[in-house]
């Protein structure tokens, strides 16, 4: 077997892993979920759960991958031979396959909106006209499938190049560019007339708006936005050398994720409040509301194009990780097999995603349990497969790995204190499973 690939540097791994975490969940989903749940209070609760739930799960996946130095299925086999725990990795592969099949549909929307913005098709429209454009775009079968294919092809191209030359190199360009573009947008947004109301909405908690649903939504968002639960981080950390500090890497990634979520809120809510628009507009917030905002400020289309570019970068860096987990398992770590399997699996995902792409048009009338194909795939991943994967990982680590082994793994390359380890161990063994079960019971309507 050829030598297993590794990240070329600590920064390369952190940027790639942060890119996986910082995707549509942080930039697309967080603003409208926060908008629907009162803003500041939701943001604060989200940060708390990210630290007590998302971070421990992220470290757990890092430990599994780095200690086994193998793909997301064989890592579990190495640690727990002769058991059925490798199904956690298989569930992660299936989840990533389904997730990328409909995630690429949204990625395609970004591509087509970017094209429309560049050629001037979005200039001078009012909010009602933007809504019409969005509806016509996502319901057109040819456009929807074509742009979904373009997004998948970009993902396949990068993953087929390998860990260092593909994923790491692309992330090293896209992630800094994402931060720079976001900061430019935030500066423009917070200097708009009336922007202070949007800033207060995001940063000034109003706990009178907090309901039980708000807490559960924030809890779910905390681990959905960190790419935990699908063993993606098991895969990424398997390319790490033993000298890398896992705690420092995890804190860096969580910090970057919270920072991007903050920037997303500061780029969007001041602009929304400045123009008296609705912060709880829902999933169409970025595609209907933001073009309306940008069209009414000087050089607005330039800023909207910049936003779409960073939105595309975030979507792609997450898509890389979804395809990578499957490719790494099927190719068995053989670099010579990577390109072939990246193309085969990527195109299979595209074909399986076509019904989701057509769910807003010619297949819109086809529903199951009252949901379109797209909504059903989203529900299956977000509300069933991700929580199950997260729960199994939270159980696997303290049950199948010795406590002393876990401590040694976290100490490698770092000065991780025994006290901090005990806190993490308590969170992963007791707190995380209970919180994940709470989310799952809520989804199932038990309470």
Automatic annotation (TrEMBL):
Keyword Cytoplasm: no
Cellular compartments annotated: Membrane
Protein name: Transporter
UniProt key word tRNA processing: no
Domain of life per record: Bacteria
Family: Belongs to the sodium:neurotransmitter symporter (SNF) (TC 2.A.22) family.
Membrane topology term: Multi-pass membrane protein
NCBIfam families: Na_transp
Transmembrane spans: 12-34, 40-64, 85-115, 142-160, 172-191, 218-239, 251-277, 297-320, 341-364, 376-399, 420-441
Main localization of the protein described in the UniProt heading: membrane
Keywords carried by this UniProt record: Membrane, Symport, Transmembrane, Transmembrane helix, Transport
